[in-house]
Q: What sequence folds into this?
């Protein structure tokens, strides 16, 4: 694992909201920090309404974390393309985030409650 990437349990309860609905709530979120970037909250898939997320064809490769797969969120007003991502087989040292989903906060609200 790259020394500038840190993963720790995110304190408290976290929610993800979009389209007027809560699509996830968890007490088991992880906070990933990478260098000077803002922390990213990762939600366990078991705590996300995955029925609202469709795997897209988009894939990207992060030099330190591995291959990211993207999801489109289906809401009443239309799809939010590639609004979430997951590292399903992250690089060595980051296995903790496998099975977790993160969201673009420019598209959905991720909040601690």
A:
């Amino acid at each position: 694992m790259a020394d500038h990437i840190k993963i720790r349990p995110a304190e408290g309860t976290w929610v993800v909201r979009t389209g007027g609905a809560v699509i996830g709530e968890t007490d088991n979120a992880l906070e990933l920090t990478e260098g000077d970037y803002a922390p990213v909250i990762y939600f366990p898939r078991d705590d996300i309404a995955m029925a609202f997320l469709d795997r897209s064809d988009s894939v990207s490769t992060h030099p330190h974390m591995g291959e990211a797969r993207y999801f489109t969120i289906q809401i009443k007003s239309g799809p939010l393309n590639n609004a979430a991502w997951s590292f399903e087989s992250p690089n060595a040292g980051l296995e903790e985030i496998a099975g977790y989903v993160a969201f673009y906060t420019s598209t959905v609200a991720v909040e601690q409650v």
